[in-house]
Specification:
With about 200 residues, this protein is α+β, with helices and mostly antiparallel strands. The chain has helices spanning about 20-40, 50-60, 85-90, 105-115, 120-125, 160, 185-195; strands at about 1-5, 10, 40-45, 65-70, 80-85, 100-105, 135-140, 150-160, 180. It has a five-stranded mixed beta sheet with strand order 7-4-8-6-9, sandwiched between helices. The protein has a two-stranded antiparallel sheet with strand order 1-2. The termini are far apart. About 30% of the residues are buried.
């Protein structure tokens, strides 16, 4: 019930009394069974634990890039190596981030990696991460000490690492990022594990 007195709106919930409808109870059981089947589905085999470094490498390959980057803070936990079921993946990755790819100079890439390697920056808890620390930026495909500042690099990541809102890339760089919409990271992981 909602009451409005001109200034305030007050919502109250009254407990449901009586016997639940058998049809509703049956539909609840049907939906719960469907969800359990979906979450129990085997997705494929991971040779190594799935963590931010693994995802950086997967994105590098998926987006045909030289370098892959992915932040620890976008993962909730590591998925152990072995047969991966959808439940483990979904419990480890709640992010709605999309895979993306861009080109940047070596100087920009060094700056992005340095920022993602800074301990104070890694401990930051930005609102989009809902109180979790950013963690460190993981890099795949290149030794950061070998980056040539004047050279251009094709870099894969997610919108969190490649768009300025994530705090890694800078707005003044004017990066043109191509995103793999509407795919989100855990869907990209599923596709990778399935060999697609």
């Amino acid at each position: 019930r909602i009451e409005i007195d001109g200034e305030h709106m007050i919502a109250t919930v009254e407990p449901v009394t009586g016997v639940p409808d058998p049809g509703v109870l049956e539909e609840i059981r049907t939906i719960e069974d469907e969800v359990e089947q979906l979450l129990s589905e085997a997705l494929g085999f991971a040779e190594e634990p799935i963590d931010a470094r693994w995802i950086a490498e997967m994105l590098r390959r998926r987006m045909d890039a030289e370098v892959g980057v992915f932040a620890d803070g976008l993962t909730l936990r590591e998925v152990p190596a072995g047969l991966v079921h959808r439940r483990e993946l979904w419990e480890a990755s709640e992010t709605g981030a999309n895979p993306g790819v861009t080109e940047m100079t070596g100087a920009q890439l060094k700056d992005l990696i340095a920022r993602g390697s800074d301990e104070a920056f890694a401990q930051d808890t930005p609102r989009p991460l809902r109180g979790r620390a950013r963690g460190y930026l993981r890099v795949a495909g290149i030794d950061p000490t070998q980056i040539e500042p004047e050279r251009r690099y094709r870099v894969a990541g997610s919108d969190w690492e490649l768009d300025p809102y994530g705090g890694y890339a800078q707005a003044e760089w004017g990066l043109r990022v191509r995103y793999d919409f509407p795919t989100i990271i855990r869907e990209a992981v599923e596709q990778h594990l399935a060999g697609r």
